[in-house]
# Entry
Amino acid sequence: MLQIQLSEYQFLRDLIFNRTGLRVDDSRYDDLMEVLETMLVESRAASIHNLLYMLSSQATTDPLWQRLVDLITIGETYFFRNKDQFRVLQDTILPQMIAERRQQNARFLRIWSAGCSTGEEPYSIAILLRELIPDIDGWNINIVGTDLKMANLEFARKAVYRDHSFRMETRSDIKGKWFTPNGRHYELRPEVRRMVTYTPLNLINDEYPTIQNGMMNFDLIVCRNVTIYFEESVTRQVVKRFHQTLTDSGWLMVGHAEPMINTHNEFTPRNYENAIFYQKANEPQPVFQMYNPFPAAVDTKPAVVESPQQAQEETQLIHLAKLAADRADWKQALDLLQKAEKETSLRMQPQLHYLKSLVLSHNADAEGALQSLRRAIYCDPNFALAHYALGEMYEKRGELREARRHWNLAQNSISQLDPTASLPLDDELTIEMFKDLLDFRLNNLTAKNP
Ligand SMILES: C[S@@+](CC[C@H](N)C(=O)[O-])C[C@H]1O[C@@H](n2cnc3c(N)ncnc32)[C@H](O)[C@@H]1O
# Structure
């Protein structure tokens, strides 16, 4: 394996963070070395030193940077991801915007999906607009999808998807209504595809708002599951710039578990059923519930039909793994969890990864445990116990800022819960006890590092 000096590794990690907002976990060291080796050959750089110099002077759209971007980004997405948010868009926010524009006789809308990955998000909005605006051909609708990873944008432009892009939450009627099947693929109908344009944009260091490429005056900015792993100060900067890139009463839609009042305080939060949206206007406005004459059928049936027995057997794997862990049979527990991870239906189950982290800790595999905890949080950013455990791991490593960040996130995720209820996944601890525990750990941290 490629050998580099510690100072070079640290320089690279900082460079990646400063240019993308993303932190490379130390557990990915071997993967990073593998990619660096390829980059050395491709760039014909004479040494690691030269390669690092080249990287620091190039844009993130450069093919060399894209090698790193491939390694560090997660493109997980699907059509109509988070149905509660999409319901609010469909029933309230979009109808309100459309009605206002009709009144002003200004038939245009501008929407930006920032961190759009392979296009499922902006296309879901395009589909909603087609369903909500019967005379859409008389409108000027401009939806822009941007991402750091060029390959994602290339994929999105083609708009040909597989079953994986249609999940439990995806309305089951959209495949038949808006896609043409072709073998194992589904091609998005051209009238929807045409509504979205794609362009690379790095939220950390590219320009916005700007008139140069029209990144300004948006009615709605959607940025979900992108800033989760940015540090708070970075997110604050990004959110501030979103604020400047919106029209006067424009909307910001963030991931359902992302809203943090302190990073979004220039916006007015608007609460809906199971969803918070942020509006640029300062005065609270009455929630506008407009009659929608063209409701889209809401159907939560899984897109991939699985027999109930099959689903039960798969879920059983996690249960059996837990029983094995309870009797300290770590080997069996790990085997079962690894088997469970291979099942598509289980891969996104936060408990699976949390349990795996416990098992790996018992096997003294601290790096593996850390990675599993991060996966658990990726699957459920509100997973308080996983944040707590991550905080502990970071504290042990002396990474106190990260420890504090995760304990603060654990605090946020339980702040609305009934103090007398028991903590999810831990019957012995009430929310109140857990809160006290977090306060205690955070106070100790402050004493160590004021
Ligand atoms: C998990 S996907 C989210 C996709 C979609 N928004 C959703 O919620 O389904 C995160 C995307 O953010 C992109 N991303 C990460 N850092 C970025 C940055 N600094 N600028 C722009 N995009 C970024 C990644 O390439 C990836 O496609």
User: Anything to note?
Assistant: Confidence is low (pLDDT under 50) at residues 284-306. The pocket of S-adenosylmethionine is lined by residues 20-22, 73-77, 81, 115-117, 121, 147-149, 152, 202-204, 224-226 (CB under 6 Å). The CA atoms of residues 1 and 223 lie 38 Å apart. The chain has three domains: 6-72, 83-279, 308-448.
